[in-house]
């Protein structure tokens, strides 16, 4: 009887602790598709730190994970944020399943914000980020990226409570998409803070800015493998006919 009581108390305590952090919102993107950008926007608008399933080094995240099961910077990106509090929403970055499953992936969540970016821009940006130094992505690496992009999008297409934004639409009307993001998360914010966040994080560059780094054969391959998804997200490749 004593053992049963001890087990019940332990289970109850674990449940109560877990329920304190039940308002998880995943920020899910394929690598180099606006995750850091959106985290800056969220933090600047709310002054609440965001987190990640990875221990990022740029900017450096603290060594130990926080109770809400995420790695975070010390005080947010600009060092002016507080930590999430029990029973309130908190945001956690993930690239799953484009990248392998981490210990804090697959947790119960209340919502997902997914940002989709044109694969041509995501692929070359990721290649450069990983210290690639050739003018075009080696074909075997490009094929791997294509498989990962497809896997990522198809996975989140069928998950519940996913809100999807296009990176390119954010560039056109950033304030609208930040407002929608904060509403999905459940954060309160002032118009002044929203204006500040948008002003501090204006989009840079343009759409398909990396197109010149792909051969025509590479672009045809991307279209062949990802054409159905690209049509779904209203993407096209100049000079390549979508089937």
What's the layout of helices and strands?
Elements: H1 2-19, E1 24-29, H2 35-46, E2 51-52, E3 90-94, E4 111-116, H3 119-129, H4 139-157, E5 162-166, H5 167-172, H6 174-185, H7 191-200, H8 216-232
Parallel strand pairs: 1-3, 1-4, 2-3, 4-5
- The ordered string of helix (H) and strand (E) elements is HEHEEEHHEHHHH
Radius of gyration: 20 Å
CATH topology type: Rossmann fold
Reading off the top of the CATH hierarchy, the class is best stated as Alpha Beta
* Major β-sheet strand ordering: 2-3-1-4-5
Structural class of the helices, strands and pairings? alpha/beta
Q: Poorly predicted ranges (pLDDT <50, ≥5 residues)?
A: 1-16
Separation, N- and C-terminal Cα atoms? 68 Å
CATH superfamily: P-loop containing nucleotide triphosphate hydrolases
Polypeptide structure, described:
This protein has 8 helices and 5 strands; from the N terminus they run αβαβββααβαααα. With 243 residues, it is an alpha/beta fold. It has a single domain (25-232), classed as Rossmann fold, CATH 3.40.50. The chain has a 5-stranded parallel sheet, with helices on both faces. The protein is globular and about 50 Å long. The protein starts with a helix and ends in an 11-residue tail after the last helix.
Which descriptors would you attach to this protein?
single chain; 243 residues; alpha/beta; Rossmann fold; 5-stranded parallel beta sheet; 10% strand; disordered N terminus
Short description:
43% of the residues lie in helices and 10% in strands.
